[in-house]
Amino acid sequence: MKTAIVTGCPGQDASYLSELLLEKGYKVYGIYRRSSTEKNASNMAVAERHTDFHQINLDITDASGIFSIISHIRPDEYYNLAAMSHVGQSFKEPISCAYVNGTAVTIVLEAIAKHSPHTRFYQASTSEMFGGITESQSETTSFVPRSPYSAAKLYAHNMVDIYRKSYGIYACCGILFNHESPRRGFDFVTRKITSGIARYKLGLSSHIELGNLAAKRDWGHAKDYVRAMWMMLQAQEPSDYVVATGETISIKDALEYVCGIAGVEPNEACKINPAFNRPLEVNVLCGDPSKIKRELGWQPEYTWQDLLYEMYQHDYSINYSQSVLNSSGKEKVEETQVQA
Fold it and tell me: Where does 189-214+247-281+303-332 sit in CATH, by number?
């Protein structure tokens, strides 16, 4: 039985990856940050029911803790998915972001090199590292980070390359473009759209608020992307790969598509709030996944339309159930008042 450590629980990617590894017969150790165990806890419901899933409460910036679990477990694979993942928040907490997204990666690389050199390491890099580059972005495209988030991720990306070449460990980076799902946090724009429009459709809110509708992104499904992570660690030699669909749409396109599903008018359902604009915007992200398709045979199974449709239907169902519960409770209160 292979063993794997997955950080970033109970986040979107960590939950899907844990389920994938368990299906493949792994023993999985999921690392939770102590302050995040309640947030998105339902994401891990499937994994936590499995007898081969084990929870570890640990902050990835705790060097002594990371060294301890690496030397004790000596995993076959280590997937580092934990990060301060919201770009906008990184402008508010740049120092914390640098430590969590950058220094913490060096800690685990050092632990692997010293205590478990056979461990295969995956680092979650990001398309945000390309920053102001507007043409299609591949593994050979220059990095021009435009946020504390992407700068810290680029530091980690470079450290993986340094440890790979200096110590011969199997370490690679997945340069993942935007990937979403019904498990995505509500502070990310796709979930703001699908959940917000569902609530608007049900009469639970008067509108949603978004920032720059012109920004363009390459959106895929998290299930496809965690499968790519696993495939990278099964290759004969470590290499970095862009993971993307190769198709870009604007936030306005995503909004209009979801509004079309819901049967509502975008101009009535959405208002622009400049407060959501970034201090330094990344206008276009479009990945070129040719290398991973050619070398590993990876192919995305979801289109961006499939993704947004699934997310909207999920959010509509949740909000519909909640509205029914609220209505039932209100009716019971009114009935009691009438009887009294």
Answer: 3.90.25.10
Contact at 8 Å (CB) between 174 and 122? yes
Cis bond leading into 300, ω under 30°?
A: no
Chain centroid to Cα 301, Å, comes to 17
183 secondary structure, DSSP code: T
CA-CA distance, 173 to 150, in Å (whole number)?
14
Backbone angles phi, psi at 216, to 5 degrees: -115, 140
Number of C-beta neighbours around residue 86 at 10 A = 15
Phi, psi of 174 (to 5 degrees): -100, 115
CATH code: domain 3-183+220-243 is 3.40.50.720
Both tokens of residue 7? 């950080």
Q: Any idea which residues carry the catalytic annotation? A: 126, 128, 149
pLDDT in tens, the chain (340 residues): 999 999 999 999 999 999 999 999 999 999 998 665 456 778 999 999 999 999 999 999 999 999 999 999 999 999 999 998 888 889 999 999 999 999 999 999 999 999 999 999 999 999 999 987 778 899 999 999 999 999 999 999 999 999 999 999 999 999 999 999 999 999 899 999 999 999 999 999 999 999 999 999 999 999 999 999 999 999 999 999 999 999 999 999 999 999 999 999 999 999 999 888 877 777 888 999 999 999 999 999 999 999 999 999 999 999 998 777 676 655 544 443 444 3
Q: CA 98, CA 150: separation in Å to the nearest integer?
A: 9
Q: Which residues 6+ apart lie within 8 Å of 112 measured at CB?
A: 70, 78, 119, 121, 163, 169, 171
Q: State how far the alpha carbon of 91 is from the alpha carbons of 85, 86, 155, 204, 235, in Å.
A: 12, 9, 17, 32, 36
- Residue among 203, 315, 210, 316 at smallest CA distance from 271: 210
Would you state the structure tokens that stand for residue 224, as one six-digit string?
A: 């496809």
Boundaries of every domain in the chain: 3-183+220-243, 189-214+247-281+303-332
Query: Cα–Cα distances in Å, from 191 out to 35, 183, 310?
Result: 22, 9, 11
